[in-house]
Amino acid sequence: MKARGSLPAVCVFLCWAVCSVSAVRREHLFPYGTRHGDSTLQEGDDETSEVLELRRPLYFYETQFSALYVATNGIISTQDLPMEKQYVDDGFPTDFPVIAPFLADIDTSRGRGAIYYRMEESPGVLTRVAQEVQRSFPGTYFTPTHAVIATWENVAAYEEVSRNSAPSSRVNTFQAVVAYDDTDSYALFLYPEDGLQFFGTRPKESYNVQLELPARVGFCRGEVSFLVFSRTEGPYYSVTSNEQTVKNLYQVGNTGVPGLWLFRIGNRFSFQNVVPAAAARAVPTAGLVAQDREATTTPDYAEVEYPDDPFSDPTNDYYPTVLTDSEFPPPAFPEYLEPGHSPNLASFSQTLLQPIFKDEPGFHFLCGITVLEPVLILKPSACSFSYFLLAVIQYSTENKETCARFQQTCSQNGYCTDYSSGFCCHCHTGYYGNGRHCLPEGAPQRVNGKVNGLVSVGATPVELDNVDLHAYIVMGDGRAYTAISQVPEPIGWALMPMAPIGGLYGWLFALELPHHQNGFRITGAEFTHYTEAIFYPGNQRLTIVQTAQSLSPENYLSMNIHIRGSVPFVVPGATVQMEPYKEIYQYYPSVITSSSVRDYTVVSLEKGSETYSYQLRQNITYRDCRHGPRTSPESQQLSMERIFIMYDKEERILRYAITNKIGPLREDPHPEVVNPCYAGTHDCDTTAQCLPGEGEQFRCQCATGYRGDGRSCHDVDECAEGLASCGSHSSCVNLPGSHRCQCQSGFGLSHGTCVGEIKTLSVLLVNSDIDECTSKPCHAQAFCLNSLGSFECRCRSGFRGDGFNCLPQSCESPSSGTRCEQHRDSLQGGLGPRGPRPAIGAFVPQCDEEGQYRPLQCHGSTGYCWCVDSGGQEREGTRTPPGPPCVPTVPPPTVRPLPRPDVTPPPSGTSLLYAQGQQIGALPLNGTRMEKAKASVLLALHVITFHHFLMLYRKVYWTDLSGRTINRASLESGAEPETIISTGLTSPEGLAVDARRSMMFWVDSGPDKIESCRLDGRDRKVLFDTDLVNPRAIIVDSASGTLYWTDWNRDAPKIESSTVEGHGRRVVVRDGIGLPNALTFDPSARQICWADAGTKRLECIAPDGTGRRVINSNLNYPFSLVSYANHFYYTDWRRDGVIALNRDSGQFTDEYLPDQRSHLYGITVCTFTEVNGQKTPVTCFLTHCSYRKRTVK
């Protein structure tokens, strides 16, 4: 075969060779014997093996079994066998489960043959079975995870040997392979052409009658339960009935190969009886790869000539098109290729190909990717899978890639190594990846992506149009948090069971057990993950393709996700629960496969608890480097625990959280010692690597780019410390754990250097500057002026603005609004790229809700404040740093507004107050028992949505997320609400009031900061705006002057504290928390208590971090929490109610579900008494503190 080194590199798809095979030969049997790890059955006439415990259960017929037994008499059973006289001389069916490749009275005594058996998980064996199933059952997708191989070699029939007769020399050899995944089971029977020399055996009790029973071949389910106390004969399938049918075993076969028989023998969901392969189709049969009895060898393959470009698209000079099944080129190679065997292909010039896709409407399908040896690939075709081969493209020596030519393809944190056939990239110490992409060991990882697709929920199609996906993975324990935003409500509920969307990132960055590798070490940041889910019982199909598109400059993994298909309807408001599960991944060069079945439970008020399942098929294709030593294992097991799923219909966010661990297929169920590094129970910082030692010892080492003792690490600013080496025309930009050199505007990066003169392979660009104007960055009524390294936008004549936004000069804004509003709007400055903006340092007046000047005006830049009159003029002598409130010169009228019908006087005594939508409800307490019949609405505001609220001085304080304000209102009838803070808020959530100091504190999860001010809004200041990721709840202990707050930081949730002045910040709780939603202070026990929506626990701890205890570990979805007497009360988003829980016993005691079914938010406790005809809150437990109103005489 002549070399084709001048050909362009293309993907070559190979099918199997069509050849005439007379029969299966002994060397075609699956490898067996002690050197392949087989156990040997004891010699004898009626022996049964020790129980073969299956690492995963298999389905035989429709029943699940976890053990198999191999018997002398040519059978495999799912139970320990009875004495042979109860079945060996009887016909089918048997009364116990049987897989019978040759049921007869066999005897291996006195060394007459041997019987071998083993459990098998190697990809070579499993792939061979999968390929045979695919050929014989077209359209079936089967990726076995386990197989059991039993081989009867040269075994003899039982004979009664007399003194005058010698034993027969006739012996038989045959083999049975039972392979299965989480859904289906198949059996292969192999009979070599010289393997059957006797076809039956004589019954032991036939006396002098010359009777021979033909061997029974087939399958029996055994007896099954009938009615209540009865049993009846189960289904069975028989292959043989007489001597000729036994001879057919090696003469015919049902796969097109004489001696090779294949049967589908079980299914998880529905199975009536065994299904044989259909030999009538005359399926083209491949030659079988021989088993080398002494040592593995590479089989000889016929040489094949290929056309110059057999798959080229005439409209595309670079990418081949996707071939349909009928367009595959003629078969050329034998079928069963073990990993490491390479066909003798022609050498091709070297070209690195990225994954190639062909567009479907709104979707992409994988065509192929260059690999370095033949490998099984899964290809989607008409919403199902079929197999194809992707062959080697080998390269001639003179065109070999070397580090000298291509080192820049390696990561800046990696290095290049030359090998005899080419080069490979590897990561430096302290980094992990595939060499082309390297990340710092131990540092948390982020993923950003876009989701598109069309999914039918029931009969309703729903489109996902470029919605955001974000994931955050904590490398220290392998926990992956995934959030998809702006998901429409019908599909948001329905996609809750699809945890594999986020499960991919768990596999990529899983916690690694010794000698095992997570996905990123193998694939790096360029791969395609294809998933197909088939739901039962509705048979809906969903396809998900996730394409990794390298790392961003910040080391974020960029993803492109396409979803298409249909999913079952899930009742709105339902919850989805998944138990921990395991998946087995099989690793081949350039492709990784997995197959599993997942159960999930849907809990809803309408239908209660219902359990469903779906079958999951996955394959991951990536660019592999075969030139260097191969380090990835053939198979690994991914364990997934602590599975949390939620859809938030208000925010339209779909969330998954899963803890992932990658390790061996066989884990020690009772290990003596588990190192905290492998258990994920260490206390290393989230930006540190846990390094295991002896036993339970370990040490923490900050990740590359971070500094500290390992338990507390902070980012190293390479730019400020001069550790970066950015060249000319560039600036250093610090990143978490790293930095990057950013070229100045107008310059581009070439081989790590910012240059104005950029060269390609053969064209020299004469321009020394990048012309930004070509991208049309300016407004349509502006023109662009390019300059060296920059550009400028200018509005055209007749328009005004900054060039990014231009308005006609004649279109002045009409005079509208109050004097204050006009004054404010006139000072907003020119139009900028983001809309109106004030001039830098300018004062902009603040107007109240009615458009009048606020009496107190403050300068946003200087911080000085002064009082103004009704016309906005400064009152002399009032200018001061933020000072006392101003009193208007003209007092307002004393006429009180009419009583409002939506204010209800509070009940006397102690009540729980809770926020729900646009109202605050009151739930009276009788002791600690909720008096649900007396529940009422305390305050209703028809425009405002309460999120968190508190009560003090007969006033209710609350945060309004929709209005981005903090407000208060008096409980007196006719009182109007008042906005205290109206600017600078994005997502004000938790709110706390310090009655002793007349201060309030809040967290804002938008800019991630904690602020404080006086109760009237004065003295506002930022306490903390660093090291916060998602602050949620906040409380204050007035007695000690201590603040406590929770942070939902996905990679490191924590509870922190400081003084009310913002000093002495420290972490109180770091370990063992997930989503600390609610926080309260138990005054009697002097403990901080929190409810966690991730761990589902309510826990308490002393302020010094001691005495931690779990009150209850079975919460649903707590939102807010308050302590009163010996009880905790919390609002629950799963039940949409108030739940009561005894502090001492930890038991639930009561629940209240309001008639209005929607989420409940903040909760507090207040005691009201009658004072001068008015109900006054004498004691309010403000979620965190107590305050007693003093009597003024």
UniProtKB/TrEMBL annotation:
Taxonomic path: Eukaryota, Metazoa, Chordata, Craniata, Vertebrata
Gene Ontology MF term list: calcium ion binding; Wnt receptor activity; Wnt-protein binding
Keyword Signal included in the entry's annotation: yes
Listed PANTHER family: NIDOGEN 2, VITELLOGENIN RECEPTOR-LIKE PROTEIN-RELATED-RELATED
Domain Thyroglobulin type-1 span(s) in chain numbering: 817-886
GO biological process, one term: cell-matrix adhesion
Protein name: Nidogen 2
Disulfide-bond pairs as recorded: 858-865
Annotated NIDO domain residues: 101-268
Primary residence: secreted
Assigned keywords, A-Z: Basement membrane, Calcium, Cell adhesion, Disulfide bond, EGF-like domain, Extracellular matrix, Glycoprotein, Repeat, Secreted, Signal
Domain Nidogen G2 beta-barrel: 443-672
